[in-house]
Specification:
The protein is mostly helical. It folds into two domains: about 70 residues, no CATH class; about 425 residues, Up-down Bundle (Growth Hormone, Chain: A). It has 18 helices and no strands.
């Protein structure tokens, strides 16, 4: 491996080598922030850095490969999330147009794939749009259901063998997912459109829930508690940036090339994500058994089952406080906010305001740009301001944990107001205004994850994020069909009722706010 030197003992540096060499006697004491002085404090992958050793990291990094710098690892994580979300963003609009045209051919009694695409304006019939909404709603529900089944298992595996192999496996699954969607759409005369649901099988390899859990676990491994919520927020803004800026790029590309090249670009971006993950160092480490440890015989099947149930019981011990339980309930309600600004919004805008799908990406990107400004500039500024001793007492917050909780509550309130405006907007400019207001609540997911992390010890955080991601994605089981159902009902009722899906989102945001009012910040240093 180029650029790597050997450790102090003469052994080559690997991905599991500590960033700073330590003697055996003091190796653990520096990690836990013990008052006992140590000569060479270190950070090992899989262990959180305490403030006592944070100042030594920059000096230690000068003697080691740049690959093992915490700032490099965080930066690479942001890049991986950005590229992966770009892939998802490029997929949404072209996939919608491809399957809308197939359903349009069926509606007019024509053979799909023959005679070129039908004029998009003729495809805005209520029955076509309703069928399209349900097609994607059940696809998302199946993705979510399979993701729920495997997320916790992959989380346990990540806590045993490391984050990196699980991360890569889940991303490879996304490549298979997109390829199956493309095959069904490319051969509409051979495969019925509902065969698109077969692509959900690829989520057995992990899917978005596992990808998100691995990302947050890696960040949690190396980020200081005081800056953890900001790091989470940067992950969040990288994800939203890709998801909401790429539609504009996809729109421009579709205008020139049609939908298929954009779909191929999606697979290329997922492949690039896998390559970036191979560069990422492993951040999780379990101490190897000492040389004088007697070999342990292979466990029997019975013992494996017993251990499995013990691990499952240990995993659910995470839900040991009312606050963590409430946070998990919030996760179960969170997905409508996300889904209503992604693929569903493209279809909704195209139908409600009679705009071609190829141009809806520009409107989505308005929300993306506003979201970036909020998360990178406004929220960090507010986060620092409210904990400053010079801030007026009425606006000042005692500590970072209380700050995260209060800002999360305000974010849910803003989400509720913004989505209400989206639901009642009579014109596109008012709709865009609602998107901008809604973007002001963009930090909610990062704040609430930081609160949950503060209640959980290091050894269980990967599983915590797996459970949170499981519930986030699991909420798709009801959220996407609910949005499709409300959309169909709104089209039947006509008039302003077409905004019914966004009124439903506003109600879910109010419910999250009510739950957040009962969440409490931990009174100890974390890991209750």
């Amino acid at each position: 491996m180029s650029g790597l030197s050997s450790s102090g003992d003469g052994d080559p540096i690997t991905e599991r080598t500590p960033l700073v060499g330590t003697s055996g006697a003091s190796e653990n004491s520096g990690i836990q922030g013990s008052p006992t002085p140590v000569s060479t404090p270190s950070w090992k992958p899989g262990q959180s850095r305490s403030p006592a050793v944070a100042s030594s990291i920059s000096d230690a990094n000068t003697a080691l490969s740049w690959r093992y710098s915490p700032s490099f690892i965080l930066g690479l994580c942001y890049l991986i999330v950005l590229v992966g979300s770009l892939a998802g963003g490029f997929q949404q609009i072209p996939m919608t147009r491809i399957y809308e045209d197939i359903l349009c051919h069926y509606y007019y009694g024509k053979s799909p794939g023959s005679g070129g695409p039908i004029d998009e304006a003729l495809c805005k019939k209520d029955v076509i749009q309703s069928e399209l909404a349900y097609l994607f709603a059940f696809l998302e529900a199946l993705n979510a259901g399979i993701g729920c089944l495997v997320a916790l298992l992959w989380g346990i595996i990540a806590d045993r063998i490391g984050r990196k192999p699980v991360y890569a496996t889940a991303t490879i699954g996304m490549i298979f997912h997109v390829l199956i969607i493309m095959v069904v759409g490319y051969f509409p005369g051979t495969f019925p459109t509902r065969w698109i649901w077969v692509s959900s099988i690829a989520h057995l390899l992990g899917g978005p829930s596992v990808i998100g859990a691995c990302t947050y676990s890696i960040v949690s491994d190396i980020a200081l508690e005081s800056s953890r919520s900001i790091a989470f927020m940067r992950i969040h803004v990288a994800s939203l940036s890709g998801n909401l800026v790429s539609p504009a790029l996809a729109s421009a590309m579709m205008s020139l090339t049609g939908p298929w090249p954009a779909m191929w670009l999606t697979t290329v971006l997922w492949a690039l994500t896998v390559v970036l993950i191979t560069i990422l160092p492993e951040t999780f480490h379990r101490p190897s058994p000492s040389d004088d440890t007697a070999p342990v015989p292979a466990p029997t099947i019975k013992l494996r089952v017993i251990r499995g149930f013990a691990q499952l019981k240990d995993t659910f011990s995470i839900v040991g406080t009312i606050s963590v339980t409430l946070v998990l309930c919030i996760c179960l309600l969170s997905m409508p906010v996300v889904m209503c600004t992604l693929q569903f919004m493209a279809q909704y805008i195209s139908k409600h305001y009679q705009i071609p799908l190829a141009k809806t990406g520009y409107i989505q990107s308005v929300f993306g740009i506003a979201h970036i400004v909020v998360v990178l500039l406004i929220v960090p500024g507010v986060s620092k301001l409210v904990v400053q001793p010079t801030t007026p007492r009425l606006l000042r917050v005692a500590n970072e944990k209380d700050r995260d909780l209060i800002l999360a509550r305000w974010s849910y309130l803003i989400y509720a107001v913004g989505s209400l405006i989206l639901g009642i907007s009579p014109s596109l400019p008012v709709f865009i205004t609602g998107l901008v207001i809604m973007s002001l609540g963009s930090g909610s997911a990062s704040f609430i994850k930081s609160i949950a992390t503060s209640h959980t010890d290091v050894e269980h955080r990967s599983r915590l994020f797996s459970i949170m991601a499981l519930l986030d994605i699991g909420s798709n089981i009801w959220a996407t069909p609910a949005l499709a159902g409300l959309f169909s009902l709104g089209m039947k009722l006509g008039g302003m009722w077409i905004g019914l899906p966004y009124l439903g989102v506003s109600i879910s945001c109010i419910m999250m706010l009510i739950l957040a009012l009962f969440v409490r910040a931990p009174t100890t240093g974390g890991g209750n």
